[in-house]
Design a protein that fits this description.
Distance between the termini: 28 Å
Low-confidence stretches: none
Strand content: 15-25%
Strand order of the largest sheet: 3-2-1-4-5-7-6
Number of strands: 7
Order of helices and strands: HEHEHEHEHHHHHHHEHEHE
Structural class: alpha/beta
Helix content: 40-55%
Mean pLDDT: 94
Length: 284
């Protein structure tokens, strides 16, 4: 939070774009540390998240504009709201604590919920449809490529054998049955990588990120900054490669390595432990 507010708040006014406004925490921090000449355009796919961020940001009045959209739609949404250039853009990838703990859409294995996993609960194919309709080879590829799951083949086989899967409990049971007990990770739940991989595919998060990183830098004003917070190595690799390519053409990374949370932040919010923040500045 502190790093985002310090590095991305505009010093000379203008628009801030938060492409994953979520609960409004980063948006609030950037607005509170900026002058009244800074406005914010926030987008999110989740209508409940937008409602909560709207309540949180109500004190900023007409400095805030919110829209329901995927961040891959930012060029269109910005144009629709008269935003021709931005002083700062933030993408905070993954899911929020609200979505994990309260949405009831199956993002977490902590409770037995419907296997949905859609960030937009009204569009797209659910995780249940994905695991019940995809063949074993493709399931194994998904789990390995998007989750880094070394037991991907065994888990895919268990899923196919146990179909139909309807709830998160069904999915956890399949993973537990497939992974040898001695191989269960110590620091994360044995189903973490499987849930991550399925969520990414259900929401086409990788495709959206690649597309956005190609298009969104054009919205930055000279001196404007783009910050991306990623939570796993696959996302960070995509961001790193995109920033490296942009650094050859009118952009520069602020730091050679990503910023990570300090010990105090991790103690206060353990889910932040894997976060990596990379920031790119438009130089000309």
């Amino acid at each position: 939070m502190d790093e985002v507010a310090f590095l991305l708040r505009p010093r000379r006014g203008g628009w801030v774009i938060d492409g994953t406004v979520g609960m409004g925490g980063h948006a609030e921090a950037m607005l509170r540390t900026s002058g009244d000449d800074v406005r914010l355009l926030g987008t999110d796919l989740d209508p409940e998240a937008l409602a909560r961020s709207r309540t949180r940001l109500v004190a900023f009045g007409d400095r805030v504009v919110l829209a329901r959209a995927n961040f891959r739609e930012l060029p269109r949404v910005a144009a629709a709201h008269g935003v021709t250039e931005a002083s700062a853009i933030l993408l905070d990838l993954g899911v929020s604590s609200y979505q994990l703990d309260e949405s009831g859409r199956g993002f977490s294995f902590q409770a037995d919920e419907p296997l949905d996993m859609r960030l937009d609960p009204e569009r797209g194919r659910t995780a249940a449809a994905l695991v019940n309709e995809t063949d074993e080879d493709e399931l194994a590829r998904i789990l390995f490529e998007h989750g880094g799951e070394r037991f991907a083949r065994r888990i895919a086989r268990a899923i196919v054998r146990r179909r139909p899967l309807r709830t998160t409990g069904d999915l956890v049971a399949a993973v537990r049955a497939a992974v040898p007990r001695a191989a269960w990770p110590r620091r994360i739940h044995v189903a973490t990588r499987t849930f991550q991989a399925l969520r990414i595919v259900v929401n086409d998060e990788t495709g959206a990120l690649r597309q956005t990183l190609q298009e969104i830098p054009r919205l930055l004003a000279v001196g404007g900054r783009l910050g991306v917070i990623s939570f796993h190595s696959g996302e960070d690799r995509i961001v790193k490669q995109a920033f490296r390519a942009l650094a050859a053409a009118q952009f520069a990374a602020l730091e050679p390595s990503p910023l990570t949370p300090g010990d105090d932040e991790v103690r206060a919010n353990p889910r932040a432990r894997s976060a990596k923040l990379r920031v790119l500045e438009r130089t000309s």
